[in-house]
Design a protein that fits this description.
heterodimer, A: mainly beta, 7-stranded mixed β-sheet, 4-stranded antiparallel β-sheet, globular, B: 6-stranded mixed β-sheet, 0% helix
C-alpha cells in the first residue's frame, strides 16, 4: 500500500507570494493533518481535515488555510509569505474518526527568500 | 492543554549500550502517547503508541516504552543501540482525543550512536 505522498518536495518562494502544498493520504484514510516543523518552534499542529471538514485548528494566522477534497486529498495554502514561514511542512493521514496512528509523508521543504 | 517535555536535546551512547530517551507529559485526561523517529530529510515514522492498554508498550526496531501515570512519564528504551538508531526522536501526546487527531510534540531528542 502506498504511503502518504506530498508534492512538491522542495519549494522556493519570495516574500509576499502565496504557495499551495498538496498531500495524498494512504488509500482509505479520511483524516489528514498538517504540521509545521522549524528549528525554533519544533513541530506544530496546523489543522486537521476529516471528510472534507476542518475538525481541528492550531494557533496559526489566517494566512494559513487548507481544504480537503472528496477523495481525501488535501491542500494547504499560505498567502502573503513571510520569511518565518520557511519550514518543513508535514502531512499525516489516519484511518479512524478518533485518535489513531498518524502516518506521515516525507514533507515539503518551503524556503521563503 | 496537553504538553510534552523531552529531557535532553542530545543524547550520545555507544553502540551496544542502553538507549534511554525521556519524556514527561502533562494531561488532564487519560493520555494517548506516541514516540516517533525522524531520519534526516524524511518524515516521521511511528515507533510505538500507548492507548491505555498495557503499560509496557513494544514497538518496532527493538524499542519499548513504559507508561507511568504516577510519574507522568513515557520514557523510550532500547537495550542495545545500533548505528542505524541515530536519528531524532519525538514524544507526542494526543490533545483532546475526543475531537480527533491533533498531536502535541515534544522538542525532540537527537540520538547519536558512537562506534
Amino acid at each position: 500500500k502506498a504511503g502518504v505522498t506530498q508534492t512538491p518536495r522542495y519549494l522556493i518562494k519570495t516574500r509576499g507570494q502565496q504557495v499551495t502544498l498538496s498531500c495524498s493520504p494512504i488509500s482509505g484514510h479520511r483524516s489528514v493533518s498538517w504540521y509545521q516543523q522549524t528549528p525554533g518552534q519544533g513541530l506544530q499542529f496546523l489543522f486537521e481535515y476529516f471528510s472534507e471538514t476542518q475538525r481541528n485548528k492550531g494557533n496559526f494566522p489566517g494566512r494559513f488555510s487548507g481544504r480537503q477534497f472528496s477523495n481525501s486529498r488535501s491542500e494547504m495554502n499560505v498567502s502573503t509569505l513571510e520569511l518565518g514561514d520557511s519550514a518543513l511542512y508535514l502531512c499525516a493521514s489516519s484511518l479512524a474518526t478518533r485518535v489513531d496512528t498518524q502516518y506521515f509523508g516525507p514533507g515539503t521543504r518551503l524556503t521563503v527568500l | 492543554a496537553q504538553s510534552v517535555t523531552q529531557l535532553g536535546s542530545h543524547v550520545s551512547v555507544s553502540e551496544g549500550a542502553l538507549v534511554l530517551l525521556r519524556c514527561n507529559y502533562s494531561s488532564s485526561v487519560p493520555p494517548y502517547l506516541f514516540w516517533y523517529v525522524q531520519y534526516p530529510n524524511q518524515g516521521l515514522q511511528l515507533l510505538l503508541k500507548y492507548t491505555s492498554a498495557a503499560t509496557l508498550v513494544k514497538g518496532i526496531n527493538g524499542f519499548e516504552a513504559e507508561f507511568k501515570k504516577s510519574e507522568t512519564s513515557f520514557h523510550l528504551t532500547k537495550p542495545s543501540a545500533h548505528m542505524s538508531d541515530a536519528a531524532e526522536y519525538f514524544c507526542a501526546v494526543s490533545d483532546r482525543p475526543e475531537y480527533g487527531n491533533k498531536l502535541v510534540f515534544g522538542a525532540g531528542t537527537i540520538l547519536r550512536v558512537k562506534s
